[in-house]
Amino acid sequence: MEDQGGDAGPVRGRVWRAGVLERTEFAFDAIDDLLAEPDVLVWVDVCDPSSRVLDDLAVELSLDPLAVEDAVSHGERAKVTRYSSHIFLTAYAAVIASNPSDPSSPSGASGRPNLRLSRVSAFVLPRGIVTVHASDGFDMDEVVSRWDENADLLKHGVGALVHGLLDMVVDSHFEAVQVLDDRIEALEDVLFEEESLSHAVQRQTYGIRKDLVALRRVVLPMREVVNGVLRHRQERGAPTELNPWYDDLYDHVLRATEWTESLRDMVTTIFETNLSLQDARLNTVMKKLTSWAAIIAIPTAITGFFGQNVPYPGFQQPFGFELSTVSIIVIAGLLYLTFKRRGWL
After folding, report:
1. What pLDDT is recorded for position 266?
2. Are the beta carbons of 120 and 94 closer than 8 angstroms?
3. Alpha helices (H) along the chain
4. Cα–Cα distance between 155 and 239 in angstroms, integer?
5. Which CA distances in Å does 149 have to 44, 160, 161?
6. What distance, in Å, lies between the first and last C-alpha atoms of the chain?
7. Looking at residue 11, what is its pLDDT?
8. Could you read off the pLDDT of 278-298 as tens digits, one per residue?
């Protein structure tokens, strides 16, 4: 598709006729004419759009100014809105690195969030769809490959394009939740170990919790998005052949939502359990220290009560003071290293 001026981002698109791909290049001012043709399905993709490109699209396709503004506004939540000539939707794909840090390593458990959200907006027209997204985030090529894999659905209209887009978004939520689930299981494996590093577990738990909160903000609204699309399809009498596909999509949305909620409870449980285990370990350390203090107190009390002061190596000699000083330092140092190694200090 042709570039729309020096400040416009790259624009691409496709045209299907009766479900068969017809072309991948067409003039910008031909979009409106193509959308008016029967048996035609049009996709226009706008990457890193400038205000000029969106303004031209709004004029060409009679897009609502509020929807155009929402397409480039920051902080928009996942939603679907119906206008007189089209519907507008916004969704977020999610990506999390699949190699979790080792919670048993203090250097690996940084507690930093690893979730990356990629926003995509879409103007859904009766015979076409316009997608808007940033170049460094949303993977539109994955959506196109899904359309190609299910090319037989494209003959049923624009609903097939919307389904492929939302299906990719929901699948990314599943993958992100799966990664978080694996990380939580890794934490559970080391939580009850005798040499568990409580501080590292806390930092890792906090990082997972931050990722989960951010993911939950984009997963939960997807129920409203899919429901809004389904209501719009029913109101305009869309073909029923795609209903099973949308039912399956909605089921995936519900499963992702329930999975996210369950992981939130699991993270909270791990955090509270780790604190309880710290208290239990502290009580164990206190019991050990109290026991040793009681053992040492017996000879100290007896020798102090009887005032024992017998000659010892170095008695009344200068090296006797040096020997006693070295003995105190060495024994105290050994106790310090022992307690440090056991995590008591």
Report:
1. 84
2. no
3. 31-36, 51-61, 65-72, 140-149, 158-191, 198-219, 222-235, 243-306, 318-341
4. 10
5. 19, 12, 12
6. 67
7. 57
8. 777 777 778 777 767 766 766
Residue among 91, 263, 93 nearest 171 (CA) = 93
Residue type present at position 191: L
Contact criterion met (CB below 8 Å) for 230 and 261: no
Q: What pLDDT does 162 receive?
A: 95
Per the DSSP assignment, residues forming a β-bridge with 124 are 87, 129
**Over residues 57-71, mean pLDDT:** 85
Amino acid making up residue 276? S
Cα–Cα distance between 224 and 34 in angstroms, integer?
Answer: 31
Q: What tokens appear for 107 in the block?
A: 């250097």
Would the pTM count as exceeding 0.85? no
User: How far is 202 from 204, CA to CA, in rounded Å?
Assistant: 5
44-48, 49-53, 178-182: range with lowest mean pLDDT: 49-53
Kindly compute the dihedral angle of the four CA atoms of residues 18, 20, 26, 31, in this order, to the nearest 10 degrees.
30
Beta strand pairing call for 87-95 and 40-47: unpaired
- Cα 87 from Cα 91, distance rounded (Å): 13
Give kind and range of the element (H or E) at residue 122: strand 116-125
What number is the average pLDDT over the span 14-27?
A: 86
The whole-angstrom separation of Cα 26 and Cα 308 is 105
